[in-house]
Amino acid sequence: MANNNYKNGGGGGVKTKSISSSSSFSSSSGYKSKPSVTSGLRRSSTGSVSNSTGGSHKDTPGVSGRVRVAVRLRPRNNEELSTDADFADCVELQPELKRLKLRRNNWDSDTFEFDEVLTEFASQKRVYEVVAKPVVESVLDGYNGTVMAYGQTGTGKTYTLGRLGDEDTSARGIMVRAMEDIFAEISPETDSIYVSYLQLYMETIQDLLDPTNDNLSISEDPKNGDITLPGATLIEVRDQPSFVELLRLGEAHRFAANTKLNTESSRSHAILMVHVKRSVKEKDSVSTIENGSSKSHMSRTMKPPVVRKGKLIVVDLAGSERIDKSGSEGHTLEEAKSINLSLSALGKCINALAENSSHVPVRDSKLTRLLRDSFGGTARTSLVITIGPSPRHRGETSSTIMFGQRAMKVENMLKIKEEFDYKSLARKLDVQVESLIAEHERQQKAYKDEIKRISLEAKKQVSEAEKSYADTLEKERLKYQRDCMESIKKLETQLAVKQSNDESRHKTSNGELIEVKKLLQNEILLRKSAEEEVKKLQNQVMQYKKSEVAGNAEILKLRKKLEDEVHQKEKLEEEISMLQNQLLQLSFDADETRKQIESGDHSIEMTPDMGSLVSPVRQPQIKYSGEQEKGPVAKLFGQVGLQKILSLLEADDPDVRIHAVKVIANLAAEATNQEKIVEAGGLTSLLSLLTTSEDENIHRVAAGAIANLAMNESNQELIMSQGGISLLAMIAENADDPQTLRMVAGAIANLCGNDRLQIMLRAEGGIKALLGMVRCRHPDVLAQVARGIANFAKCESRASTQGIKSGKSLLIEDGALPWIVKNANNEVSPIRRHIELALCHMAQHEVNAKDMISGGALWELVRISRDCSREDIRILARRTLSSSPSFQVELKRLR
Ligand code: ADP
Ligand code: MG
Questions:
Q1: Residue 122 CA, closest ligand 1 atom number
Q2: Which residues, 6 or more positions from 865, have their beta carbon under 8 angstroms from its beta carbon?
Q3: If both were cysteines, with which of 233, 294, 318, 489 could 209 make a disulfide (CB 3.0 to 4.6 Å apart)?
């Protein structure tokens, strides 16, 4: 430490202005001037001193605060009053000038200026206000503060700091008054005060509140250098009396400790630490100001409260007198060094700070470590140096004054200790969470209750509904039961009535039953006898049958014989018929010729037998000239040739054509020519003439020629296949000339004799054409018609016998029967014969019987069987009648 920098130089009385131009120390209001004061920054600011409660600290720019130093002069004590009665005080105070004059001798003195000069008359109150009050106020504002007394033993350090003022309240020292001010300021609800009280002796820290803690260690936060005493007792004080009690206790312990250590309290340092923690209203908070206007809801609710933590350290230092004086208190030199170590270290640090030395040996002693923030730190520090008036201790007084002078040069950088109280926020939030949990629980309970209520209500409603449903159901059931019972009763009544009816009916029916039973038994007896009769008859029938079988065989034989006979007879009849036809034709021709002769018409060229349907057509001349007449035609045929003659059929001249036809017709009468004519296409030419020509003569002659050709069986089929029947039918329908019709009828009659052409002939209208021609009553025509019908009937009969045909006669189908019946007894014999034969043929088949009976044919047959002049026909008719069961039945019936 530098020496005597501010010492007046010699006796010139020249005052060295050693104190910076700061505001007046004596003015508490001036001292209180806060952050606005900026009198230069200190290089050695150690930053803020925080405490162990954690939380974030906001570094605010510090304000410069020089260590304030006041000097207090103790009044003369009794000893001094008596011993030094003849001597003047070694100091002279000029309080109004804040100056102190230290007398060197009677004529010379050094003048020192202090922040405050307190005379021996200064009251404790005034000392407190001048020295400590500004520091206390700073502590309440959140700064650290230090009040320290330095001086020779017995100069009043303890008097200034530690008097309790029990007997005289005006005597209360700084500690008591400081605490009074603190209590007056704080709010017990939000703020708190904790106190530690320690003694430092020979580099050992003892806990004055708990003497067992007699060696406390100092802990230093490696980050910010904050100094704490983890083992020290911290007692919360809530009121002044309890604080005074603590002080008293601490003093008692200090006394005991010093007794034990065989020392005096003047050799040890007493340190009172008061931790003041205050919550800060938002508007006062530095942090709030810095946060500006960002006051969202979240920031308001989640922002931790701001607290300020000020720490007041009051240090009653050990006596500053030099203890290395020999003989003092019997300590060894080493002990003396150790006793004084802290104090001398403090002096060195203050010197270093005062001289802006690069090294401040803070770590040299426990005291300097504990007071690190008080000198050159962030605390507001006020030092009172106490001096006595005695000139005998002038040296000590002088050194004390010099200490004070150097301390006045130490600049601190005051920093407010404001931080966010996260713990408090956490507690607050805990409270909120708990209340929310409670609220939630309440709501849950209410919800459950509501659910319960609703479910009870629902159950009630359901049970009511069920009850009403059951009631309705029961009513319905009873109703249906009633209805059912009534229905049953009705039915029972009906049943009873019915049963009584049934009973009466039963009685009557019983009588009937007995009768019926009797009848039944009779019937059974009758049946038995009848059965016996039947058996007898059956036996008889068997006998008959046996004899009948034998008879039948005989009959069959006879029948066979008979049929053979009939067949033979038929053949003969056919021949007879042919002969008759020829005869008929001849007679007819004769008649014609006779007529022509009679009429003188010689134009008729046809022979009388030309129309013969059995014999070939001949030239009329033949008849007259006999066999010799054949000559010219044969000659013509031989000379001209068939082809030439046939070609003439198509000649333009009608006369030529008619003659050509006549020639052909004549030639066709010869069986030998028929084939040649057909081969040469004569048949086709003749048929086409029927179509193309309208000349009736040609029709007649051509039809005659066709009729001649139709005698040959193979030609018959050719005629049919070339549509001859249709052409003939057409001519038959349109012609009026009996000769023409006779030729046409003759041609069709020839075709009717062919077994194979039956169906086709009938289908193409052959039978109808025949029947149509009967309109002409000429017997020759009718004879040809009758011949055709007889031929057809014969073929049908053959077919039926052979099993080829099964149905009714096509003649009947086509309506021939009436004409047949009508003409069966025609006076012209050829007609009659043909019809009689036809009837016999038709009658041979049962299928025709019914129509024949109804059509009157039966009577004709009967007549034939009796009256026919021809015996063979008569026999045939008879046989036919007897062999037909239908005819037999009908005849029986009529009989
Ligand atoms: P220190 O603590 O410095 O050793 P003390 O405070 O014990 O000194 O004081 C020594 C004596 O002086 C005490 O008896 C005390 O009453 C008395 N004394 C000290 N200062 C004053 C004062 N200003 N007025 C009256 N008496 C005082
Ligand atoms: Mg003392």
A1: 23
A2: 874, 877, 878, 880, 881
A3: 233
Of residues 778, 791, 799, the one with CA closest to residue 748: 791
Contacts of 533 (CB under 8 A, 6+ apart): none
- Note whether 457 and 449 are within 8 A (CB): no
Helix (H) or strand (E) holding 136: helix 133-140
Residue at 390: amino acid letter = S
Whose C-alpha lies nearest to ligand 1, atom 22? Answer: 74
Q: Residue 163 CA: which ligand 1 atom is closest?
A: 6
**Which of 215-229, 429-443, 549-563, 580-594 is predicted with the least confidence, judged by mean pLDDT?**
580-594
390 CB near ligand 1 (under 6 Å) = no
Given a contact cutoff of 8 angstroms between Cβ atoms, the answer to whether 429 and 125 are in contact is: no
Output DSSP code: residue 482. H
Instruction: Report yes or no: 116 and 70 within 8 Å, Cβ to Cβ.
Output: yes
CB 232 within 8 Å of CB 213 = yes
Q: Is the CB of 155 under 6 A from ligand 1?
A: yes
Structure tokens at 433: 């969470």
CA–CA distance, 443 with 435 (Å, rounded to integer): 12
Among protein residues, the one with the nearest Cα to ligand 1's atom 10 is 154
Residue 301: the pLDDT is: 59
Distance CA 666, CA 701 (A): 9
CB of 123 within 6 A of ligand 1: the answer is: no
Picking from 857, 881, 873, 876, the residue whose alpha carbon sits closest to that of residue 580 is: 873
Q: Using a CB cutoff of 5 Å, list residues around ligand 2, an ion.
A: 158
**At 583, is the secondary structure helix, strand, or coil?**
helix
Digit-coded pLDDT (tens) for 657-697: 888 888 888 888 888 888 888 888 888 888 888 888 888 88
Q: Could you tell me if 143 and 416 are in contact, meaning their C-beta atoms sit under 8 angstroms apart?
A: yes
List, in sequence order, every residue forming a beta bridge with 93; answer none if it has no partner. 100
Mutation test of ligand 1: which of 89, 124, 159, 314 has the most ligand atoms closer than 8 Å to its C-beta?
159
Cβ–Cβ under 8 Å, residues 664 and 649: yes
CA 322 to centroid of ligand 1, rounded, Å: 19
Nearest CA owner, ligand 1 atom 8: 154
Output the DSSP codes for 176-217. Answer: HHHHHHHHHHS-TTT-EEEEEEEEEETTEEEETT-TT--SBP
The structure's pTM equals: 0.48
Q: Are 405 and 5 in contact (CB under 8 A)?
A: yes
* CA distances (Å), origin 131, targets 124, 146, 816, 851: 10, 10, 181, 178
End-to-end, the C-alpha distance of the chain in Å comes to 197
What residues have CB less than 8 Å from 132, skipping those under 6 apart? 147, 174, 177, 178, 314, 382
Q: What would the DSSP string read from start to end of 731-744?
A: HHHH---HHHHHHH
